[in-house]
Design brief:
single chain; 127 residues; alpha+beta; 4-stranded antiparallel β-sheet; two-stranded parallel ribbon; 4 helices; 6 strands; globular
């Protein structure tokens, strides 16, 4: 486990990301009907991204945001975010499920697992 994990620093980091212009509610962002394709990290397009977002909600996330979104341009009609923040529930079983899911992803990418130290938010890197 990550003994250096700072739950206060984690929550401050997520709150900072959520206050920036390149973050949006994940479902609002992914479901926009404006001719721009959207995806999360290396997931294959909108459908797979929506399925992952739904998995987070089913596991108990109270709210999920796409953060650090790479925006479309006039020439490039595609947006991607390889990072999400989610609001963790207070229920231990749901927290465990979400942390287990996030830690599986983190470990696949060579990051340390995140312990449950009472943090409000969970930051997940998908690429």
């Amino acid at each position: 486990m990550n003994g250096n994990f700072d739950p206060v620093g984690n929550d401050e980091f997520c709150k900072k990301l959520l206050s920036e212009n390149d973050s949006e509610d994940l479902f609002d962002w992914i479901k926009k009907s404006d001719g721009i394709e959207r995806s999360l990290g290396e997931l294959e397009g909108t459908e797979e991204s929506e399925a992952f977002a739904a998995e987070l909600l089913t596991a108990g996330a109270k709210k999920v945001w796409a953060v650090d979104i790479e925006r479309a341009t006039d020439d490039y009609k595609f947006e991607n975010s390889g990072k999400v923040c989610l609001l963790l529930p207070v229920e231990q079983e749901k927290r465990f499920s979400l942390l287990e899911l996030a830690n599986e992803i983190a470990e696949e990418q060579g990051f340390d697992p995140i312990p449950d130290k009472g943090q409000e938010y969970l930051y997940i890197v998908l690429d």
